[in-house]
Write a structure and sequence with these properties.
Layout (H helix, E strand, L loop, with lengths): L7 H8 L4 E3 L7 E8 L10 E8 L5 E6 L20 E4 L2 E4 L5 H18 L5
Antiparallel strand pairs: 1-2, 2-3, 3-4, 4-5, 5-6
Length: about 120
């Protein structure tokens, strides 16, 4: 897709870079967003580098969607790595994330944030 015909949600997503905001009424849980354009590579075919994270009151990441590194396909130090870097973290678990577009990424992330907060009994 040429730059002149880019999906408007990509421009919106890139504008979110550096955003930090609280997502609960007591300001204990915060979301941090990093988003920037990168070269199109086999690992990042969409040409974006991103990190959307949810942190608790002591600053620990409890949820994250990012593409900073490949996801292990097998456990252990000799395990294979998946080709794509898009994945999500929830507490200590890492799973592949099927990136389709930035609008879906944002929606999926905030849906996961809502689930985590609900599981923790947090009012938003």
């Amino acid at each position: 897709m040429s730059k002149g015909h880019e999906d408007p949600s990509v421009a919106f997503f890139l504008e979110l870079d550096g955003t930090v905001h609280f997502v609960d009424e007591k300001c204990r849980f915060r979301v941090e967003i990093q988003a920037r354009r990168t070269e199109v590579t086999p690992e990042r075919p969409h040409g974006l580098s991103y990190s959307l994270t949810l942190h608790d009151a002591d600053g620990s990441r409890i949820l994250g969607f990012d593409n900073a590194h490949p996801v292990p396909a097998n456990r252990g130090p000799g395990g294979r790595r998946h080709k794509y870097h898009d994945h999500r973290h929830r507490f200590e678990t890492t799973r592949i994330y099927a990136f389709t577009d930035t609008e879906t990424l944002i929606s999926d992330f905030y849906r996961a944030v809502d689930r985590v907060l609900k599981d923790k009994g947090v009012k938003t």
